[in-house]
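Both lines are retained for reference:
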Amino acid sequence: MPELPEVEVVRAGLAPAVIGARIAQVTVVDDRALTRHPGDAASFEGALTGRVVNGAARRGKFLWLPLRDAVGIHDDVPNRRDGEALVGHLGMSGQLLLRAAGAPPQRHERVRLDIEHPVHGELVVVFADQRTFGSLAIDHLVPTADGAAGGWGTDAAATPSQVAHIARDALDPAFSDARFSRTVRAKRSAIKRVLLDQTVISGVGNIYADEALWAARVHPEAPADLLPARAVSRLLAEVRTVLQKALAEGGTSFDAQYVNVNGQAGYFTRFLHSYGREGQPCSRCGSLIVRKRFMNRSSYFCPRCQRRR
């Protein structure tokens, strides 16, 4: 599943092409892409057509495009308002791709937006999804609980209602280290389970949890409430480090399911120390990385560097 670095790479790629663009036409090819949308395909197409994209924002693994009405249109629709956004989640294999106007259908295309940008001209935004776990929806914006900006890429203190329950991510300027430490040390769950809890810290999935735990020398099944405060601080620092490094490399791609808006893969696989390296020597101590079943997925860790104490 795309995690914070992958979704941020997509957001940053979309932003210059979509901010200020008018959505000229919307085509829903497969309404399974609208599982989070409260209406049907026709309502989705009708509510988006003619709107202007006001921004491109992200919190954790969610991204959203705030919307406004184009000047001089929809004046006869009194319930239109600016406090709405197109919100997206990539699920397991979702892709948001930028293409030239009139581009042929993409493989696994689910939704197509034909847009008109005042600088870049006519473009196409395609939502493609092989496994159909991703989704798009039109949602209303709600104020943030702490009064800070809703997420990365926006100054507005608002998020889509579907995102409001998601915690801030470790790279968010409004993220509270102290609150994170208190929350973690109050949990009796395994520390990896806590890292994957999007209501505690967002954007971290299986890959970056394993990498951060390896870097911090913490066993994935260590009880969170037994970790010293200094260990939690060290782990949070490693979460930030691994996310920033992955961002610099364009994210992590193991196959063609994750690509940026231009269809290019990320290169962070070259820097993985634990995830996916079962049976290979630990780059720190030389012991063989092991794989263990964890929450219907796998954990990769070094049994020597990450001893469970």
Helices lie at 4-18, 41-48, 177-185, 191-195, 206-216, 229-248.
